[in-house]
Amino acid sequence: MTKRVSIHGQWSSRWAFILAATGSAVGLGNIWKFPYIAGENGGGAFVLVYLLCIVAIGVPTMMAEILLGRRGRQSPINTMQSLAAEAGRSPRWRALGWLGVLAGVLILSYYSVVAGWALAYIFRAGTGAFTGIDSAQAAALFESLTGDPQLLIAWHTTFMALTILIVSRGVRSGLESAVKVLMPVMLVLLLVLVGYALNSGAFQQGIRFMFSPNFAELTATGVLVAMGHAFFTLSLGMGAIMVYGSYLSRRASIARTTFTIAALDTLVAVLAGMAIFPIVFASGLQPGEGPGLVFLTLPISFGQMPWGAFFGTLFFILLAFAAWTSAISLLEPAVAWLVETVGWKRSTAALATGTLCWFVGLGTVFSFNVWSEPLIGERNLFGIIDFVTSNIMLPLGGLLIAVFAGWVLGRDASRDELALGDGRGYRAWRFFVRYVTPLAVGIVFLHVVGVLDLLARPA
Ligand code: TRP
Fold it and tell me: What's the CA gap between 55 and 30, in Å, rounded?
């Protein structure tokens, strides 16, 4: 029953998979989202919960997701259906695949809009728009972009077209080598920015904000957001890593691969925070500034450093690239299913799903200008889509993936797939997916009832 190779092809090596999966994991989530949600949720305690969730929930769930993908060798919808059938369970488990497809469409809809900001900032950096600016000028510059729906739509369209292009050609073509070169450059550039932050005069204050936990600052919503972000940043809970796993060779070690990806992803997020928070305090901004945080802080850094126009251009190119390698993984589960089951050509499938995401994305475009008024609590349409996908759909998907791998899939199957023998490593993994992930997600979800009250309460 289980196919040894996916009809969509296979990665050329374990490293190719690591690069692609790291490309998926490292993206706007690390550089744009992590700092601003850490800022909104009080810093240190939030960061601690986030790191804990990466280790205790993210790593075991990622192993589960890769394992299921490689065992099923199909799109997540069909993988779930056939693995469930093999285990003698209901084919309705395929609903998990559908949940993922829906989450992917919703996430990509706004992801593309924000990636469009990065594209716009490439040109702003290149033309020297940041030279010597202060925080008020950085804010005016940012608002001149977000306040202009036509401009936002133009960049959103550009980014979505680039995503459709790569997905049409197959996620493996050319991407491996690009990630291999660009990821290290990104790390170096982040180090340059941290080096700059070191001299900003508020480095210690920034670091204290990020790393010294004050639990009085952390609300129930904050815990949910931290957990949701652990799924988001590792690309878990919607089948992206599962579909990438379905292209992975039988010989690769899933455990080692997972640790590498999680470590790189966390490194990038922590470095981004260390580059951004000192600038927040040095230039009189607020950590809770919101989704514009990275676009307000880093231009100030680039505007003051030597070679700033060059470094700034390079940085936003890399940010757009990182977003690109993430965006394709959001589309891939839906495209793989359309190719497998409906029989469409890859290019048709990519165009259709990408266009759908583009339309939904208009809701986010207008959330920053004509529809910026809150709809529920303090959230506008963008805020609602982000909240529901990251904090409800992904953890729910992750929980079901963990339950499936721990309780539905036979012990022999998971032991065979992980190839860790029967030792402590395997038993620990099984304990985490059977008990820790479901319980942790369940407990945090119980707060959701309270959280939904908070959400509906006027700000
Ligand atoms: N992990 C990516 C980031 O941090 C975003 C992303 C890509 C993602 N694929 C995903 C999030 C799948 C959730 C699910 O930017």
Answer: 16
Tell me the pLDDT tens digit for each residue of 375-391. Answer: 999 999 999 999 999 99
- Which residue's C-alpha comes closest to atom 14 of ligand 1? 235
Written as one string, the DSSP assignment of 134-185 is: -HHHHHHHHHHHHT-HHHHHHHHHHHHHHHHHHHHH-TTTTHHHHHHHHHHH
Question: Hey, whose CA ends up nearest to atom 10 of ligand 1?
Answer: 235
Q: What is the pTM of this model?
A: 0.95
Pocket of ligand 1 (CB under 6 A): 24-25, 27-30, 107, 232-233, 235, 238, 240, 326, 329-330, 394
| Alpha carbon of 34 to ligand 1 centroid (Å) | 12
Query: What confidence category does residue 285 fall into, taking pLDDT thresholds of 50, 70 and 90?
Result: very high
Distance from residue 171's CA to the centre of ligand 1 (Å)? 15
In tens, the pLDDT along 288-320 reads 999 999 999 999 999 999 999 999 999 999 999
What residues contact 423, with CB distance under 8 A and at least 6 apart?
A: none
- CA distance readout (Å), 433 to 61, 229, 235, 242, 409: 7, 18, 17, 16, 12
Judge whether residue 372 has pLDDT over 80: yes
